Automatic annotation (TrEMBL):
It comes from Spirosoma rhododendri. PANTHER family: AB HYDROLASE SUPERFAMILY PROTEIN YCLE, MONOACYLGLYCEROL LIPASE. SUPFAM superfamilies: alpha/beta-Hydrolases. One of its GO terms (molecular function) is hydrolase activity. Keywords: Hydrolase. Residues 19-244 form the AB hydrolase-1 domain. This is Alpha/beta hydrolase. The keyword Hydrolase applies. One of its GO terms (cellular component) is membrane. InterPro entries: AB_hydrolase_1, AB_hydrolase_fold, AB_hydrolase_sf, Epox_hydrolase-like.
Length: 259
């Protein structure tokens, strides 16, 4: 195990329940701004940059799923987060499920957006090779943006997505593609005892929605799964209102408008 690092966070709102947001591979906490802006009215929202991403430190080692999980645990302790919901997107879905398997005190439930499955993520080897060889170039970042979005986003969001891709450290980028995404933590999923809800876009070119019933749901027999029509991989940017609705109905089932 590597030493934990102090992760950069974006915090807003207040309330007895904290929503902890974790981002996709090559992204940052910034992806959650439009979602948090609606939820911070009633809840404390904390969006986190994982090591090597966004504004968090990029040590030379320590990019296993357990290492990234340890960082998040340390951050939650530092921020005195007690009652909370973990919301993980893509790569961070694997981190969130790993953390949930440790049965931390205060964790209420897990919400996953197009998560990397507990089993090895099925990234085609040619895609893996291309991403390893071209990362850091504007052309590759633009190509990735065009591939992982299915709905139009604002010019500012487009630039944020490309910028986050380019500023992801080479060590974090390479580690996820060569090791982290290939980790198999499926045997730990029987220890996840909180409710798990999953949502994915039906036009996701980065992580097909078929991955969830094939590689995630069999390990989590009580998890729920729904598909969002028209969305690509970056639902927090592409359809933030729909994602807020999904989160709200899971947090407060039975309330008017949340059925």
């Amino acid at each position: 195990m590597e030493a934990t690092v102090e992760l950069h966070t974006i915090a807003s709102g207040q309330g007895p329940l904290t929503l902890v947001f974790l981002h996709y591979f090559g992204g940052s906490a910034a992806e959650w701004q439009a979602v948090a802006a609606q939820l911070e009215i009633k809840h404390r929202c904390v969006a986190v940059d994982l090591r090597g991403h966004g504004d968090s430190p990029a040590p030379k080692a320590g990019y296993s799923v357990d290492d990234m999980t340890d960082d998040v645990v340390g951050t939650l302790e530092q921020l005195a987060v007690d009652q909370y919901i973990l919301i993980g997107h893509s790569m961070s879905g694997k981190v969130v499920l790993n953390l949930a398997s440790r049965q931390p005190v205060g964790l209420q439930q897990v919400l996953l957006v197009s998560p990397s499955p507990p089993h090895p993520e099925p990234i085609p080897e040619k895609d893996r090779k291309e991403m390893l060889e071209t990362h850091g170039t504007e052309q590759a970042a633009v190509k990735t943006f065009e591939n992982i979005t299915a709905k139009p986003v604002s010019r500012a969001d487009r630039q944020q997505i490309i910028t986050d891709n380019l500023r992801t450290s080479e060590v974090a980028w390479d580690a996820w593609l060569t090791a982290g995404s290939k980790e198999d933590i499926a045997d730990r999923m029987s220890r996840v005892v909180v409710p798990v809800s999953i949502i994915a876009g039906n036009k996701d070119n980065a992580l097909s929605p078929d991955v969830q019933p094939e590689l995630t749901l069999p390990t989590l027999p009580n998890a729920t799964f729904e598909v969002l029509d028209g969305a690509g991989h970056l639902i927090p940017y592409e359809m933030p209102d729909a994602l807020v609705h999904f989160i709200t109905k899971k947090i407060s089932p039975g309330l008017p408008g949340n059925s």
